[in-house]
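Bumping with the actual sequence this time:
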Amino acid sequence: MAGDLFQSTGESATLPLASRMRPRNLDEYVGQQDLLGPETPTRQAIEEGKLGSVVLWAPPGCGKTTLAHIVATHLDAHIEVQSAVTAGVADIRRIAKGAKERQGFDGKATLLLLDEIHHFNKSQQDALLGYLEDGTLSLIGATTENPFFVLNPALLSRARVLPLKPLVPDDIKGLLTRALSDEARGLGGRRLSLADDALDHLVKCANGDARTALNALESSSLLAPMNGSITLELVEQVLQRQAIRYDRQGDYHYDTISAFIKSIRGSDSDAALHYLARILQAGEDPRFICRRLMILASEDIGNAEPQALVLAVSVSQAVERIGMPEGRYVLGQLVTFLAEAPKSNRANLAITKALADVEDKALQPIPMHLRNAPAEGMKELGHGEGYEYPHGAPGAYIDKDYLPEDAGLETPYYEPSDRGYEKRVGERRGKREENS
């Protein structure tokens, strides 16, 4: 077996606790009951060795690697283990060549366990297609990235995606309790106890990641005396603060940003500040935050509160000049202002409708009275003829057509809301119409 990233669950004390406690079968496997519970189709397919090619998609520490190894144990197949971080097309061809020779010799199938499959580029993914199509290889891929974004549609059509969920607190508690009592593979030989508040803190800080929880338990155990207790103080020494999972290219990044923007749009300043704190704590580039807030100020607030965009641009400049961490003060001010401001997407809808008309409809000539006439000859052709200067009229308004004739446009584009400053815009429109 090549490059065994899917390590066996050997009981050697030299292995980290998380490796020693790796489940060896589906009965020991924790979590994913919707997918792997008794009598579920996926569990039956695994136990019967008929799962086929799959991509396991989940955040870190949810059991992707473990499940891949368990699936492999149910197959009467030769197993090749590779990491997409280090493997390439040459490795795939070598494995496929051996698989074909094996099929011809004794008919034995070959299973490729490919960890971090999202690191394969398009050409490397394409190299797998023919071998999966003709049955030379079966594939179990593991990834923390959204496979629908990072894997080719052709590969996804040949491998079913199985999304795994983060482990719930009870799952993490069960793993920690088992590790503490297991004398063969865990910490049972040291006769340690774990304080309830320490257990709760471990579970909270693990944030659904089994590996993080077990690593923290092992580190805490090294600070505890034999036959002693792992206290909250010991755990706090190991876990200085919660490790925030925030891969700038991953789903959690986009989910957090989505929650941040939607909270502001929904006028919940507390939720918006919470997600801003997550983003800042994770070390996000403040310029990225400012860009998103400038977009939101126009897209979701618009003319209901015109100062929103002005303040967003000012905060962007202030953050650039002040830097971090002090820049969080002006970001907090902006986020609370945007969240509490009246909301309107009417300007956004207006430009969207105008663009749709320009794209879909034949463009009619610009009315003559609106055309530019920089030369006398153009005036003689009628350019600018009949134009009336609004500032010379009462209220600086003249009831005049400015759109092309017979254009068939889906107007009105801009229909002010009854919120904030836009309410005043609508009132002014009403007065103009009354006086025209």
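The tokens above came from a reply further down the thread. The radius of gyration is 31 Å.
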